[in-house]
Specification:
Blueprint: H1 8-22, H2 25-39, H3 47-54, H4 60-67, H5 74-88
Length: 116
């Protein structure tokens, strides 16, 4: 299967506990490819361009992964919470995210800043 240069090993190591929580073999196979497609350089994040960028022969397998019946995402949230706790400092730590400094993409973003 295709890999994007420079992403494979770091992404694979980061995904490892999440993939183990997925359980289903096909999900463990296609989830990393789908994420590589989302993280890839293409502006278009629809399945056909992603499949082409990943070097896949078609987009059907990605479509099946995305459109498959709902599955329990609880195990993924547990892994995420455990990893966040470890990174932040444990259950007593607090993480505050301030996104107000992030630049906005829209033209109206200039109007949403502080009033002068």
């Amino acid at each position: 299967m295709a890999e994007l240069d420079g992403v494979g090993s770091d992404l694979d190591r980061w995904l490892e506990p999440f993939l183990a929580a997925l359980g289903h073999k096909r999900r463990r196979t296609w989830a990393p490819l789908y994420l590589r497609g989302l993280l890839g350089p293409s502006e278009r994040k629809s399945l056909q361009p992603m499949a082409a960028c990943l070097g896949l022969p078609g987009h059907d397998q990605l479509q099946h992964f995305i459109a498959s019946p709902a599955w329990d995402d609880g195990p993924l949230w547990r892994v995420l919470a455990e990893r966040a706790d470890r990174l932040v400092g444990g259950p007593e730590a607090v993480l505050v995210i301030d996104d107000t400094a992030l630049p906005k993409k829209a033209r109206l973003a200039k109007l949403t800043g502080p009033m002068r």
